[in-house]
Design goal:
The chain is α/β, with parallel strands linked by helices. It is 44% helix and 12% strand. The two termini are 45 Å apart. It folds into three domains: 74 residues; 197 residues, Rossmann fold, CATH 3.40.50; 57 residues, Winged helix-like DNA-binding domain superfamily/Winged helix DNA-binding domain (Arc Repressor Mutant, subunit A, Orthogonal Bundle), CATH 1.10.10. The chain contains 15 helices and eleven strands. The protein is elongated. Strands 1-2-6-5-4-3-7-8-9 form a nine-stranded mixed sheet, sandwiched between helices. A two-stranded antiparallel ribbon has the order 10-11.
Length: 369
């Protein structure tokens, strides 16, 4: 592993102490001056920070040696970089006591932190249209030179990370677990791909396993790490809405993709728009947020891989079936009834649309894309 400063090691030790919180850790670091001096103060039992109860300091002193050994062992075998809130290149935009004071990061492309960063998040249970929208937005961002930030979860998050990687862009995954605890486990290959083409970062120490309470807390990092946040699909309750509200509180630019009132996972986005979020009607609009000229991007569809497949010509029947959907999922019987075409012709049209990436079957319905 690469050489690591004692400052980084001590910061990681402090972040792993029992009952540490962002407020306590920041207060400790501000009082001590450096992570090294903070560790020494704990070892000597002379922390003296009013905001930190004495029994907490006693627990830290008792656990210090064991924690230090474990952290040093992890760092000796992992390519982890430790970031501290007073570093010149600290990536979070909001400097508040409730924000992390230390972040742990791993990955092969730290330039991801130095590009425009846009969060693309949403429900873990998206519709096929939501997946298609997430992929298209992430592709536009990757082609515009931006870093896609998301939460490594199923659904919209995974689609956004994957599309950015496929487009050759950079992406940052923000985790609620330790860097050595991929979650959800089936997404472990995605974690590896994100590491190879970007970064995974979080505030929790090695060994932290998934707990429900950690995910809403994690979402504030996604918001603080990004200049803008795009909500692709979201129910009225869930992590994506936590991220949106955090972004709004931080004064970040909030986008939401509008959806049908019949779609439960569009309700959160529609409510955000009603409350003032900017509707994202075309993924090219997000290029403005990263300084890309939308006129040139619209005139040259080559970089936008999601749009290339949509330029393929459709047969008359396929075009009629796609138009008959009106942007909504439909059953085969409904499409036959609306178009008046024979069943065989509608079946052939849906297969053509599926082959061209313009339609997908899911949950017993046909979803236009």
């Amino acid at each position: 592993m690469s050489a690591r400063s004692e400052r980084e090691v001590c910061a990681a030790i402090l972040a792993a102490l029992p009952r540490v919180t962002p407020v306590r850790l920041r207060a400790l670091l501000l009082a001590a001056g450096t992570p090294e001096l903070a560790v020494a103060a704990i070892a000597d039992g002379r922390v003296g920070v009013e905001a930190i109860p004495g029994e907490v300091v006693a627990g830290w002193r008792h656990a210090l040696d064991t924690t230090a050994v474990a952290v040093r062992e992890h760092l000796a075998h992992r390519p982890t970089r430790v970031l501290v809130f007073d570093d010149p290149d600290w990536p979070l935009s909001l400097d508040a006591p409730s924000m992390p004071a230390v972040l742990l990061a791993e990955g092969d492309d730290y330039s991801a932190l130095h590009r425009p960063r846009i969060a693309v998040v949403g429900t873990r249970h998206p519709t096929p249209q939501g997946i298609a929208d997430a992929r298209e937005v992430a592709t536009v961002l990757a082609d515009s030179g931006a870093t896609v930030v998301s939460g490594l979860a199923y659904g919209i998050d995974a689609a956004a990370h994957d599309a950015s990687l496929v487009a050759g862009g950079t992406t940052i995954g923000v985790t609620a677990t330790g860097l050595d605890q991929p979650y959800p486990k089936p997404n472990a290959p995605l974690w590896s791909r994100v590491r190879a083409q970007g970064l995974i970062l979080g505030e929790n120490p090695f060994g932290t396993r998934p707990e429900p309470r950690l995910f809403p807390i994690r979402n504030r990092i996604i918001a603080a790490l990004s200049s803008s946040v795009v909500i692709v699909e979201a129910a009225v309750r869930g992590g994506a809405l936590h991220t949106a509200l955090a972004a709004k509180d931080m004064g970040k630019h909030l986008w939401a993709i509008p959806g049908s009132r019949r779609n439960p996972v569009a309700e959160g986005c529609n409510r955000l728009i009603a409350d003032g979020a900017q509707p994202l009607l075309d993924p090219i609009d997000i290029a403005v947020a990263v300084g890309r000229d939308p006129v040139s991007l619209a005139a040259d569809p080559t970089p936008v891989r999601g749009r290339q497949r949509r330029t393929a010509p459709l047969s008359t029947a396929a075009a009629e079936v796609h138009r008959a959907c009106g942007g909504e999922p439909a059953t085969l019987d409904q499409l036959v009834g609306v178009t008046g075409l024979p069943v065989a012709a509608v079946v052939a049209a849906t297969r053509e649309l599926a082959r061209l990436g313009r339609m997908q079957r899911a949950s017993g319905r046909l979803w236009p894309l």
